[in-house]
Amino acid sequence: MEKINQAETGNCLDQNNKPFLTILDLRTEPFLNPEKPLSYVKSNCKIINSLFDELADAEVRMQIPKEGLVVTITETGNRDKFAMQFLSKFGYTNVMGLQFGMRGWIKLNYPQVRR
Fold this sequence. Notes:
Radius of gyration: 13 Å
CATH class: Alpha Beta
CATH superfamily: Rhodanese-like domain
Distance between the termini: 20 Å
Helix content: 25-40%
Shape: globular
CATH architecture: 3-Layer(aba) Sandwich
Order of helices and strands: HEHEEHEHEHE
């Protein structure tokens, strides 16, 4: 939450105009039920929606900046560790998982939007 708030105050860019924060949403629900509105982390930062398996595709990974923090979001946070380990194999050094996933975010009543 602290990093997301910090990114919001700086337009998600650092002093060198590089991404400060990117959100990588790896939940499957948006792909399984695209017509169903879901809660998302409220942020002006770049949000990339992807299936976990798609991270094996170099074109998908090219969308994820290596500068700044990448925050992975899964439904419960259980798969974040695997996403962080996988991305580290491709040179991503600043990746964190959203603790307890989107369910935890909602439960704590942190800022969210429905789409």
